[in-house]
Design brief:
single chain, mainly alpha
């Protein structure tokens, strides 16, 4: 049992280190992957997700943008809007991320969540244009969690929005980008959270 616990601890340490490397490449000031994972976990528990599904979603959250790091494009760090060609190029990162997750031995569940974390509720996301409940619940949760966590942290291309501004964005894009039921659940959690909860933490 001790040996198993030690291996699990080492795996967690390596996963957090990988997540930190991805955050650093993307230019986040704080631990974006970890914050995203914590927010997603809170939402997932509200949907009574099983423990193995929560664990898979957490791993995917921590490495969701590994494809961007593998691509290594310098435009990700530039303080300017992306060109159309750059935007289209960047949309390749979920598939590249899926492939990298496979190479690193992550489960197929993690690989697919990495692939689908940019799918939109209305079917206009990428890479597979899935819509509605074609998108797995965990991927829909990651979409909302990623948007909120990214909007409320500084990036090279823009300053952080306030929590209130990010909430307005989620409401405006519910049933377009986001599953409206997940947005409602997030807002319910957000309304009863205090400043120490993961939703509000920006300095993890």
């Amino acid at each position: 049992m001790r040996s198993s616990a030690k291996l699990e601890s080492q795996r967690d340490e390596k996963l957090l280190d990988l997540s930190s490397q991805i955050d650093e490449f993307e230019g986040y000031r704080h631990a974006h992957g970890l914050r995203l994972a914590d927010i997603a976990d809170s939402i997932g528990r509200s949907f009574n997700m099983a423990a193995p599904d929560l664990a898979t979603m957490r791993e995917a959250a921590l490495i969701h943008d590994i494809g961007e790091m593998v691509m290594g494009r310098e435009y990700i760090k530039t303080n300017r809007p992306l060109s159309e060609a750059e935007r289209l190029d960047l949309q390749r990162h979920p598939v590249i991320g899926e492939q990298e997750a496979a190479k690193r031995g992550f489960s197929r569940g993690v690989q697919l969540l990495v692939r689908w974390h940019h799918e939109w509720w209305d079917g206009s996301g990428y890479p597979d244009a899935l819509s509605g409940e074609q998108i797995p619940l965990a991927a829909r949760i990651l979409r909302v969690s990623d948007a909120f966590a990214a909007l409320t942290d500084d990036r090279p291309r823009r300053k952080a929005r306030t929590d209130e501004e990010a909430v307005i964005y989620l409401k405006e894009w519910a049933a377009i980008e986001f599953d409206p039921a997940i947005v409602m659940t997030f807002l319910s959690i957000n309304s009863r959270s205090d400043v120490d909860d993961p939703i509000h933490r920006s300095g993890i």
